[in-house]
């Protein structure tokens, strides 16, 4: 059973990688972004979207740890009182 789970996980990761690769190959139009006075150079659309995905994947867990830590501190101080 453990081997079947491993095969399913590897296949799921492979499918995700292929979908992202296909997305990147289909979105090669050059664009420039402007936000609050900050302007980027010409890059493919897919680079901006993949960069946003990676930043979100890093910030999401980080924020959940920070919020969870704050809740844990609040519950600990409520128990002491």
Automatic annotation (TrEMBL):
The keyword Cell membrane applies. Coiled coil: none annotated. The chain crosses the membrane at residues 7-25, 45-70. Keywords: Cell membrane, Membrane, Transmembrane, Transmembrane helix. It comes from Pseudomonas extremaustralis. This is LapA family protein. It comes from the Bacteria. Pfam families: LapA_dom. The lineage of its organism: Bacteria, Pseudomonadati, Pseudomonadota, Gammaproteobacteria, Pseudomonadales. GO terms for cellular component: plasma membrane. Residues 26-80 form the Lipopolysaccharide assembly protein A domain. InterPro entries: LapA_dom.
């Amino acid at each position: 059973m453990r081997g079947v789970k491993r095969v399913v996980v590897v296949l799921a990761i492979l499918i995700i990688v292929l979908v992202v690769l296909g997305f990147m190959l289909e979105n090669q139009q050059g664009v420039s972004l402007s936000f609050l006075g900050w302007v980027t150079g010409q890059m493919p659309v897919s680079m901006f979207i993949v960069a946003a995905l990676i930043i979100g994947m890093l910030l999401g867990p980080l924020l959940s740890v920070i919020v969870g830590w704050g809740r844990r501190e609040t519950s600990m101080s409520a128990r002491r009182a």
